[in-house]
């Protein structure tokens, strides 16, 4: 309790002047009340020794936020080292620079931050060194920790994570005779709710005689159907919940399993049979999707937490005070995909010990608490989620309900084949949505193309043994 009070005092004084902090990162201090009260083993893992005076490491970045900057400065104070952040305008520019440094073995960079895709691709490619297992590993969410691991070894320490939430309009629930405190518990039930919540311009519900499906005013649900990462990364929530996955336990493509087919059939039926999605769903990206919701034209949605803040902003939203968020429904199980970021150590580094110390420092619980309480990022740690729920019960409460259900997207385990597999995934979703193929045929055809990609890239010969720890 004393630790909690210390954290809240620091955070409360910081949040009070939040607009000023954004413009001046130096106003923020990286205090360590959690680490100060932790075991010696935990302290030794995260807190660097003060023995690196005169040394420096180079870390590429395309964005260093105020929390990261404050904690970098704290690391420099503790270690005596200098961390030189090398900025790039875009993430692609940063990755291009890292790839060039790897190709030329320049030793230019020492550590890097990346999502799960980067940690897996660079780790499987032999460009990252594994990190020692944290003594407080159990404090990290299993799905999040696993998405940065290869063959049981950690290649990126989790810093922040992310998960999708269920959004629903409490006012529309009440108007339809639904209890706004009881959202749908299964995806089958969600479809039934959505049919009741879909209303045409004459005020008729889709369940009523005379409903005009060509003139819908409010859609019961939505889907980001654009041919981009937007569509598969929404579909994975349903795929996992229906009991499917992209690979089986031996890394054979399982995209056409009965569970996978059922999950895609559910999406397609919502669009083509039940008319609870907008007509132009196949071109919906994140922007079109969240705009429809915050303008009051969608009754329920599955999306990342960022949309809640938008929905409560009177400058852009028509649904302020009318939105609830919570746990996504189940079907065969509660499950959903996740995002996140981690820090890893590049093998090219000539200062491995210092680079590792910096990577581990970025995973410490105090920095995680600041990312959560000050910046609103979903914490990678269970203990910080509990703390966040006390301070921000609505958003953090919803995040806390969903994070234990999360699973990593195993396409990321395919390393350099990852994006090619994602493209085949969004293509199959497109084929099914527009009716060019049935969901089953789209999945079976995609499996053939995916197996060709994996064979071309020697996935089973070169990477699967590493993933399975053989």
Please describe what this structure looks like.
It is globular, with a radius of gyration of 23 Å. With 470 residues, the chain is α+β, with helices and mostly antiparallel strands. It contains 21 helices and 15 strands. Helix 17 (382-391) runs antiparallel to helix 18. It is 46% helix and 13% strand. The model is unreliable at 1-26 (pLDDT under 50). Strand 1, helix 5 (66-79) and strand 2 form a beta-alpha-beta unit. The strands form five sheets. Strands 3, 4, 7, 13, 14 and 15 form a six-stranded mixed sheet that branches. A three-stranded antiparallel sheet has the order 11-8-12. Strands 1-2 form a two-stranded parallel sheet. It has two domains: 2-163 and 341-407, D-Maltodextrin-Binding Protein, domain 2 (3-Layer(aba) Sandwich); 165-337, Periplasmic binding protein-like II (D-Maltodextrin-Binding Protein, domain 2, 3-Layer(aba) Sandwich).
In short:
The protein has 470 residues and is an alpha+beta fold.
User: What multimeric state do the chains show?
Assistant: single chain
Mean pLDDT: 93
Fraction of residues in helix: 40-55%
Strand share of the residues? 5-15%
Helix vs. strand class: alpha+beta
Tally of helical segments: 21
Outline: globular
Tell me the total number of β-strands.
Answer: 15
Q: If you compute it from the alpha carbons, what radius of gyration comes out, rounded to the nearest whole angstrom?
A: 23 Å
The CATH architecture assignment of the largest domain turns out to be 3-Layer(aba) Sandwich
List the SSEs and their pairings:
Blueprint: H1 2-16, H2 18-23, H3 33-36, H4 40-46, E1 56-61, H5 66-79, E2 82-87, H6 91-104, E3 111-114, H7 116-124, E4 128-129, H8 142-146, E5 149-150, E6 153-154, E7 157-163, E8 165-169, H9 170-175, H10 187-197, E9 199-200, E10 216-218, H11 230-241, H12 258-272, H13 286-294, E11 300-303, H14 306-311, E12 323-326, E13 336-346, H15 352-361, H16 365-373, E14 378-379, H17 382-391, H18 393-402, E15 406-407, H19 418-434, H20 439-456, H21 459-467
Parallel strand pairs: 1-2, 13-15
Antiparallel strand pairs: 3-13, 4-13, 5-6, 7-13, 7-14, 8-11, 8-12, 9-10
């Amino acid at each position: 309790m004393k630790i909690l009070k210390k954290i809240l005092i620091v955070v409360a004084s910081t949040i009070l002047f939040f607009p000023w902090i954004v413009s001046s990162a130096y106003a923020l201090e990286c205090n360590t009340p959690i680490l100060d009260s932790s075991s010696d083993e935990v302290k030794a893992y995260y807190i660097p020794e003060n023995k690196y005076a005169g040394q420096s490491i180079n870390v590429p970045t395309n964005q260093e936020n105020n929390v990261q900057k404050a904690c970098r400065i704290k690391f420099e104070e503790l270690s005596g080292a200098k961390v030189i952040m090398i900025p790039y305008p875009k993430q692609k520019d940063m990755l291009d620079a890292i790839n060039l440094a790897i190709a030329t073995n320049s030793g230019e960079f020492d550590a890097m931050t990346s999502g799960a895709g980067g940690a897996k691709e660079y780790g499987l490619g032999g460009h990252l060194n594994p990190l020692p297992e944290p003594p407080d590993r159990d404090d990290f969410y299993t799905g999040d920790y696993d998405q940065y691991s290869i063959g049981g070894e950690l290649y990126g320490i989790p810093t922040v994570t992310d998960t999708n939430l269920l959004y629903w309009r409490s006012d529309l629930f009440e108007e339809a005779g639904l209890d706004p405190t009881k959202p749908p518990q299964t995806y089958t039930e969600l479809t039934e709710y959505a049919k009741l919540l879909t209303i045409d311009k004459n005020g008729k519900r889709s369940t009523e005689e005379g409903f005009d499906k060509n003139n819908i005013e409010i859609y019961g649900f939505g889907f980001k159907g654009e041919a981009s990462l937007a569509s598969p990364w929404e579909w994975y929530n349903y795929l996992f919940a229906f009991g499917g996955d992209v690979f089986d336990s031996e890394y054979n493509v399982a995209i056409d399993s009965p569970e996978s087919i059922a999950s895609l059939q559910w999406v397609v039926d919502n669009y083509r049979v039940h008319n609870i999605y907008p007509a132009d769903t196949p071109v919906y990206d994140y922007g079109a999707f969240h705009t429809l919701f915050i303008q009051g034209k969608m009754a329920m949605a599955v999306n990342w937490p960022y949309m809640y803040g938008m929905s409560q902003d009177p400058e852009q939203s028509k649904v302020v005070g009318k939105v609830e968020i919570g746990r996504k429904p189940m079907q065969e199980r509660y499950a959903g995909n996740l995002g996140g970021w981690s820090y890893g150590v590049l093998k090219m580094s000539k200062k491995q010990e210092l680079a590792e110390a910096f990577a581990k420092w970025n995973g410490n619980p105090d920095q995680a608490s600041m990312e959560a309480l000050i910046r609103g990022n979903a914490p990678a740690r269970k203990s910080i989620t509990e703390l966040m729920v006390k301070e921000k019960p609505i958003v953090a409460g919803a995040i806390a309900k969903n994070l234990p259900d999360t699973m990593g997207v195993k396409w990321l385990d395919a390393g350099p084949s990852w994006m090619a597999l994602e493209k085949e995934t969004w293509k199959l979703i497109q084929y099914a949505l527009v009716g060019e193929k049935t969901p089953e045929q789209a999945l079976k055809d995609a499996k053939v193309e995916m197996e060709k990609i994996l064979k071309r890239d020697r996935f089973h010969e070169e990477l699967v043994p590493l993933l399975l720890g053989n």
